[in-house]
Amino acid sequence: xxxxxxxxxxxxxxxxxxxxxxxxxxxxxxxxxxxxxxxxxxxxxxxxxxxxxxxxxxxxxxxxxxxxxxxxxxxxxxxxxxxxxxxxx
Amino acid sequence: xxxxxxxxxxxxxxxxxxxxxxxxxxxxxxxxxxxxxxxxxxxxxxxxxxxxxxxxxxxxxxxxxxxxxxxxxxxxxxxxxxxxxxxxxxxxxxxxxxxxxxxxxxxxxxxxxxxxxxxxxxxxxxxxxxxxxxxxxxxxxxxxxxxxxxxxxxxxxxxxxxxxxxxxxxxxxxxxxxxxxxxxxxxxxxxxxxxxxxxxxxxxxxxxxxxxxxxxxxxxxxxxxxxxxxxxxxxxxxxxxxxxxxxxxxxxxxxxxxxxxxxxxxxxxxxxxxxxxxxxxxxxxxxxxxxxxxxxxxxxxxxxxxxxxxxxxxxxxxxxxxxxxxxxxxxxxxxxxxxxxxxxxxxxxxxxxxxxxxxxxxxxxxxxxxxxxxxxxxxxxxxxxxxxxxxxxxxxxxxxxxxxxxxxxxxxxxxxxxxxxxxxxxxxxxxxxxxxxxxxxxxxxxxxxxxxxxxxxxxxxxxxxxxxxxxxxxxxxxxxxxxxxxxxxxxxxxxxxxxxxxxxxxxxxxxxxxxxxxxxxxxxxxxxxxxxxxxxxxxxxxxxxxxxxxxxxxxxxxxxxxxxxxxxxxxxxxxxxxxxxxxxxxxxxxxxxxxxxxxxxxxxxxxxxxxxxxxxxxxxxxxxxxxxxxxxxxxxxxxxxxxxxxxxxxxxxxxxxxxxxxxxxxxxxxxxxxxxxxxxxxxxxxxxxxxxxxxxxxxxxxxxxxxxxxxxxxxxxxxxxxxxxxxxxxxxxxxxxxxxxxxxxxxxxxxxxxxxxxxxxxxxxxxxxxxxxxxxxxxxxxxxxxxxxxxxxxxxxxxxxxxxxxxxxxxxxxxxxxxxxxxxxxxxxxxxxxxxxxxxxxxxxxxxxxxxxxxxxxxxxxxxxxxxxxxxxxxxxxxxxxxxxxxxxxxxxxxxxxxxxxxxxxxxxxxxxxxxxxxxxxxxxxxxxxxxxxxxxxxxxxxxxxxxxxxxxxxxxxxxxxxxxxxxxxxxxxxxxxxxxxxxxxx
Lengths: 89, 987
Description:
Helices cover about 10% and strands about 35% of the residues of chain A. Chain A is mainly β. In chain A, a hairpin with a 5-residue loop joins strand 5 (about 65-70) and strand 6.
């Protein structure tokens, strides 16, 4: 079981968290997205081997959705942090 | 011959056995016959002392099998103990009156009917799962009967009282796995540096292989740690867990271990793996006969339990260990008729002294020789020995037949590296040692001892100390010491050793040139009865990769999980393919590394549920409770049909405290609602209630519920009971990533109790408890009011899932039971009835109201689900809009529709398929039933189902296939079944 550093609560076992998937920002103007771009947002994931930016939710804790950068090969979590507007591409 | 051997065995004095209390004894039974055991005995050691050689029948061919490793590594001694199947007899302590039975044997262990499969093994070729028992299809019932009787090991008694299993969490700076010389040294070194250390060993005492091998301990002084058994835990920061098996390594240094019925979950800052090695068997004809044991297994029986497993022994070895085994046997009183060393040179150092002593005692020594076959009926009676030829196999020359009742095989060692694999260590085949050894370890993981290929006590202790010290330093600093190199990293490659060469040759030669003694199977995998011929056949059939070979032949997939066969299978695979061992690679190691009972993993039988504030009342009033999601809810109070009738004709009361409830406040609350729901919110004025439908960006329905506007900046949102948690997480996700400005979302699901008072007389009942004007003009449908009911401050929503005039009353949870009882009391004159989930399901189905998650699934959009009216595509930017715009253009392929059964048929089970006969008479599946009930109001069976959109026309007939294959008819019904215009809600 992984240990995650919740930006609010600190290091906790992952059973307290819900995994929220790859960071996959919603297109700012959905109506402007063509079908390919929209279906890519809906259905396509990178499934990276290596460093991945991903969502986690501290379900049995403070209720924070935060971002983590995790190496999917080694499970080493290099960074966890709050979402901010700078995350919007 | 056999008689004489037995008599000879009886004469000899038993060796001591360090674990055995010879002063006392007790009786247990094996297959109904009494067996004498001493305190300290395992089932296996007591049976061996009693001369019982056959402990089990093998999985596929039902061949007799006896003790082999005496360490819990091989499958040979799996027995049934009472109701518990697959107990390793060599590990389980014998107890008075224990009832032990053989497995996989019928009618008896000695005369097993299915051993006839040995004659017909052309029906069980390698990969038989994929080849035989398939055609002709009509014979499958017969095949199934045969296979069901042949398959599986042991017997499960479904009536066994559940045992108690529990879990314990442990935390440490350093966790050391394995309490042999390396592990002990590591634990002591780490503890001396102040680390909190946990030491785990699967045996009853620490010491590892030094427990059963005679070792010159004084050479290393007192401090190396074997005396720890006598130390009574003298070190406060070192906790020792014996009889505790580590099952697996999980990310971030999380270990699972089991002791008895307890599962340990261990988090450690660093882990030292000192798991040792498994001694390996060799390949020769009939290498599975009872009486053929691993050298280390013989030593365990001798030194731990004082059992001499045979009187006339042949020892076959690829290394110096076998010479010590032979010497131990001789000293214990056995006749060692021969030592067969596959190496060409005579042993040196200590083994040379053993050789001299053994030769003095009359043992024959065969150097550069191998064992070709064993022979015997039921147990080994002869070993057939020959000189090794050019390719390492037997030469064309003569063989020597040696009578014996024990063959001890020292076939070399395979590192017990499962945990290292799981931890992500880089492990490679070292030609020089013939072992898979770690050469790079992740930070915080350390290895020491035999698992790194160190076979001398001195190096094991040294490595242990270094690893323990480095692990403690890693905990203190979080850094790997720069100058620390693991033993595996330091190990230099060199030419294959003679031991490796000897072991390899014994595995990969196929006995060519020795036809006259090749009678018999050569087993690679004892669990699944896979022979070297099977392996070669599988490779010839194209399963060349080791991973495919494993899956096809099932080699290494049995109870031992490769401990006895993995290395040998890799060697065979490499040889047959003409690959190097490195090219061949290994299969993936996954937890559990050792067998574990499912009860341990399941833990206590605890399924936490939430209960409502009225729970006690429900229980006291005959409610039949059901688990609904995380909640315990009343399914009914005895008669759901009567409950439905009460609501339709008079008045009923249901506890809906389980609904999800959220308070949204702030100037931008309406904006958040607009984004979350597909329908419109901006114009919802204070005092009004609206149904809301929530979709994700795919346009799939997530949840529904009603939301009330209490004040201009205050909303009260309700969700389905089952969706409450997911909806909250969903809202939080969007609110915390850019949509949360100007709005607070507070979860209040458990803060409020909620009841639905439903039925034509609900207004009359409610008006008894409140002075407020409840008239239709003053408090109309889809409105919300704050009022005092029986003196309790309440929020009342005039909505109706049931289709009747109804009031959903929310009050602070602490008043819940008081208000519930007050409502029932006020309704007594009106014939009020509490109703449960079942009545509500019928009531809503009569109204054709959907339940999200039952009538919809992960592909259901609002257009298909008949909720198009709720979707406001002309409002901007809500979740699902982009996809729903597209769906609305194309129209749904399937639609949710109501139906009635024809000809008075009963309701079909939910989930049944809707079919359409095709030209050739075959049935095509075109839809399925999602809800169905008998409607007491309509007095016929009704339901909801998914159908091709073109068929959703009122009156359209269709066919449902029942479980037994019968076809029944139904007709589409559009709209609600009851009160289709919804007039009763609004009265």
